[in-house]
Amino acid sequence: MSELGELDLRRARPARDLEGLRALAGIRSRLFGRADAPLTVGRYRLGERLGAGGLGVVYAARDPQLDREVAIKLLRSPPGSGRAREQGRLLREARAMARLSHPNVIEVFDVGTYEGLHGLDDAELPARGVFIVMARLEGETLQQWLAVPRPWPTVLQRFVAAGRGLSAAHAAGLVHRDLKPANVFVERDGRVRVLDFGLARGTGRASETLSDDDLRGASLDDALQSITIAGAVLGTPAYMAPEQHEGDGADARSDQYSFCAALYHGLYGVLPFRGSALDELADQKSRLALRAPSPDVAVPRWLGAVLRRGLAPEPIERWPSMDALLRELERR
Length: 332
What we know:
alpha+beta
């Protein structure tokens, strides 16, 4: 099982991972004769940790009621007075994901809230938050899949499949807000699924949780990692739209921009824009100063022109919708 979405093991808190809790339980069992209780969230029995990111932790799990293996994502609620509001938003959007049925979107089976890991009554428990139970996928992320050079028609085919899932989500009123190759999964049979719809942050101005100084001049240590401030993922610098740099709420046109940035990267092997700091990267995007690909890359001109429109600095200048963009990508 590969990672689900962007899973960054460096961000996990060792004292709160299941391996640590199980080790502690084993010691107590040997010392005091206690039997290890299964670690559960709701009815789900947790297994190995699959990874962690800015939003939470993903575990393998088993649903004993339906007798199936699943993946469960524990989303941390942000600290502060906005916790209840943000938790309510996560629940609403997770339920909307559960209602969305599309072959290119990960299946969501269940959602709810948690108050720790039940089974170790006196062990350190993770912060409260929302859990999402999803299909457990076998394969690799699109980011991993792209690590091997592939013909441009094959790359385009995978992205078009992801675009169909994105379009279906937009039709259901969902916005991804952090679309990138690490949040797209390629199953072993080749099926493409988009992960983590709407979980980055709600619509509206980001100034509710951060100031302009949070972004301007910030160091760009890794343009492929999500920016997390005040418990909210704002986007990933390499792929996020200019309006997200400005702190404006993301919408379907922002997703279209991220899709085109990711496809540019997948086709040409280079990120569309570069900069050593976020404000420099934002400036490159505002001027549509695209990086020139290697002359050895054989991607047709018409495809580059389609992407260029999708990467327009102003949302109104982009394609009218994901459907319109996909029609252009599939026309020839």
